[in-house]
């Protein structure tokens, strides 16, 4: 039996707010190429609207706002970083923002936005080290309803099975699309920072969780940093938040920061600076990190008078219960013998 194994990589997501723009900026690389984890195929967004050239999210994702019947084009660069000739397939696939994550569909599953996307080629025969530019076009139907939609433009390549194996690896990398449909201007992007919670990861490493609520009309890809100030006034950080939190409009979620294992317990002032593209917010709160759990040996437990007393009491109760059961059984036997 021949099996297929799939690998997928999305370009890192940032955030961006765009006015209604149907003409793209001059073609110029706006972000580094994204290559799959096995270094088989790469993809790079080549252009973005001029008024968002400084927006970090515009470097890697297509984020735009169009009216019904609107249209945009974007240039992408596809690369073959391998030492062999290969065929790369291009297509648009479904995606959704749910559960605090940007989630893409399996295989070639499509949704409404993916069905509006066309590419000027769907397959490229690529020589070693070759790069090819392709144009992606998004045409919105005139009867499209208002709202934000999500998709991915994929570049996919396969690698032959290794000697003695029947597994073919499918590698794909993609560029995200966040497209809002509606008349008039684009909905604003905004968020509020909520509660700070100090804790520890399963292995005992201290962590900080910060609640965030998307109060705007566009999806957010959260980034940011957190700094700590201890009681003596000694600073720690800043520490990057863990990537991957994407919030749909109106959704609440959390960003997390993994902190150094040797961070002292006790009270700290946590200062967070979070962002989604050009939208930034800051907040601070007093937090107290719990002391790490220290496993205790049985001998140490038995040296604790409270533990010893509790154990003796539990044993006594069990013995008393057993004695009562035995006496009741003996009484029933004697009663039966006298009848």
TrEMBL record:
Signal peptide residue numbers: 1-27
Transmembrane portions of the chain: 306-327
Keywords for the protein's UniProt record, in alphabetical order: Membrane, Signal, Transmembrane, Transmembrane helix
GO biological process, one term: carbohydrate metabolic process
Descriptive protein name: Uncharacterized protein
Species per Swiss-Prot/TrEMBL record: Micromonospora pisi
